[in-house]
Every structure is written in C-alpha cells, then in structure tokens.
C-alpha cells in the first residue's frame, strides 16, 4: 500500500531513486541523507470520492547511527479501510549507497459481515549514485508474500520497483521506473521536475497499465514544502493529491 503525495505523484510516482522526505511512503532509503527532523501529512483524493481517499502522516528522526522513521496511513471509509503503521531505519552505507529496512503492520477493517485482518510485512530499499548526478533506486515490498486469508490463498501485494534518475542541473531531474506487482503486468513510469525559480517547481509524469498522466506544482517557503498534483485515468475521474511537510531546524 503506497501513499501518494503531491511531489512524487506529480512525476507519475517515478520516484524510487530520489532522496526526499516522501520516501517515508515509497523507498525509505531516500531518507538516509536527511539531517534534521521532518514531519509531513498528505491526502490523496482518489477519483474525487471521499470513500477512496488516503490520509497519511510521516515523521523522520535523524541520529548519529542512522535515521529512524515512522508513518501511518489510512485508505477507505467506515465500512472498509486499509490501515498501515510503519517503523523504519535508513542509513548511508558509504558515499555512494544508502539502504533501508521498514516493518509494517497492515490492518484491514471490514463490515460486520466479514472478519477484520491484521498482518506484519516488511520493506527493503536501496539507492546508489554510481556516477555524479545519476541515481539508481530499488525497493521491495513484502518479499515473503505474507498471507492475509486462507480463502482463495489471499496474500498481501508483493511489489518490486527499479528506477533511474538523472539531474541535468540542480533544478532539473528526469526519472524512469519499472514497477512489478507479481500478480500484474509490469508498469512503466516516467517523470520530470523543473525548478522554474529557486522555490517553485513544476512537474509532469506518465504511467502505463493503465495509461495515466499527471501534473504537479511545488512551493518551498523557508522550512515548509507544499506540493499538489493531479492524476488522470482513462475511464474514471481525476485524482488529486496534496501534501505539506515541515523541517525542524538542526
């Protein structure tokens, strides 16, 4: 279960290789270079319907021995919801590579006619910069294929992601990513972010299976970052995402 935030979704969620606070909900290895605490919230209004919305809260605490993060998110409504509580750790292995490990508790709340379910899974992440300005990211969600229920052998999603990103300049990055849910076809994603001035960013992205397009806008004011994005769908209404995070002073 991935929470969609304003920055990454504006880039088609092609983000597995990026160092950013919002890696708390994507690839936690992207948190390894954060040097002061950050807290952030985001909301994904799926197809402009409240019942398919996702609310999320994340926090990162840097320490001398590595960075710790926690996150909570909720998708759904009173009769059905998917809830996630996470605790993770990330650190720089050396000047080139960063890695992460996160443990998740997933709680599925259903109507009284069905049984609620709770499971534990984990995530692994890696980001490398083998040459200057070129970033490689890998993330694996639920590699053990944890079972949710005996009925139809229902299991939590296992998702593998691999991507590349290149910074043509400090304010221009292009990314491409492949995402594979083992039960679905490979999904290709690509994104572009351009800083038109020092604190204003515009973004665009594309996804396949199904074909979707996204646009986004970001604004940074002192220690506060605000991002919004819009995502199309071939047969359903658009979805919108909004997120804000605050970085505490060192």
Tell me what you see in this structure:
The protein has 250 residues and is mainly beta. It has a single domain, classed as Porin (Beta Barrel), CATH 2.40.160.40. The protein contains 1 helix and 16 strands. The protein has a 14-stranded antiparallel barrel with strand order 1-2-3-4-5-6-7-10-11-12-13-14-15-16. Strands 8-9 form a two-stranded antiparallel ribbon. A hairpin with a 4-residue loop joins strand 13 and strand 14. The mean pLDDT is 95.
Topology:
Layout: H1 6-10, E1 38-45, E2 53-63, E3 66-76, E4 80-92, E5 97-110, E6 117-131, E7 134-141, E8 147-149, E9 154-155, E10 159-169, E11 172-181, E12 187-197, E13 200-207, E14 212-221, E15 224-231, E16 239-247
Antiparallel strand pairs: 1-2, 1-16, 2-3, 3-4, 4-5, 5-6, 6-7, 7-10, 8-9, 10-11, 11-12, 12-13, 13-14, 14-15, 15-16
At a glance:
With 250 residues, the chain is mainly beta. Helix content is 2%, strand content 61%.
Shape: globular
* Secondary structure category: mainly beta
Number of helices: 1
Q: What is the number of beta strands?
A: 16
- Strand ordering within the main sheet: 1-2-3-4-5-6-7-10-11-12-13-14-15-16
Ranges with pLDDT <50 over ≥5 residues? none
State the end-to-end distance. Answer: 32 Å
CATH superfamily: monomeric porin ompg
- The overall number of domains is 1
Order of helices and strands: HEEEEEEEEEEEEEEEE
Mean pLDDT: 95
State the major sheet: 14 strands, antiparallel, barrel
Radius of gyration: 17 Å
CATH architecture: Beta Barrel
CATH class: Mainly Beta
Q: What is the helix fraction of residues, given as a range?
A: under 10%
As for the CATH topology, it is Porin
Strand content: over 45%
């Amino acid at each position: 279960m991935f929470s969609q935030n304003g920055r990454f979704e504006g880039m088609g969620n092609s983000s597995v290789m990026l160092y950013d606070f919002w890696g708390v909900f994507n690839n936690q290895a992207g948190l390894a270079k954060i040097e002061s605490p950050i807290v952030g919230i985001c909301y994904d209004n799926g197809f402009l319907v409240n019942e398919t919305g996702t609310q999320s809260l994340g926090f990162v605490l840097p320490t001398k021995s590595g960075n710790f993060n926690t996150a909570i998110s909720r998708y759904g409504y009173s009769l059905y919801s998917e809830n996630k509580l996470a605790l993770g750790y990330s650190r720089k292995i050396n000047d080139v590579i960063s890695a992460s490990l996160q443990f998740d508790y997933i709680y599925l709340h259903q109507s009284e006619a069905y049984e609620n379910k709770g499971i534990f899974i984990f995530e692994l992440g890696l980001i490398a910069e083998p040459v200057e300005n070129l970033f490689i990211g890998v993330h694996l969600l639920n590699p053990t294929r944890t079972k949710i229920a005996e009925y139809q052998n229902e299991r939590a999603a296992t998702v593998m992601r691999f991507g590349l990103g290149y910074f043509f300049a400090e304010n221009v990055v292009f990314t491409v990513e492949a995402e594979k849910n083992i039960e679905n076809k490979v999904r290709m994603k690509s994104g572009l972010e351009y800083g038109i001035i020092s604190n204003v960013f515009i973004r665009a992205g594309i996804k396949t299976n199904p074909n979707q397009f996204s646009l986004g806008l970001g604004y940074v004011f002192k220690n506060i970052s605000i991002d919004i994005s819009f995502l199309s769908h071939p047969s359903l209404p658009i979805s919108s995402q909004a997120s804000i995070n605050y970085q505490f002073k060192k």
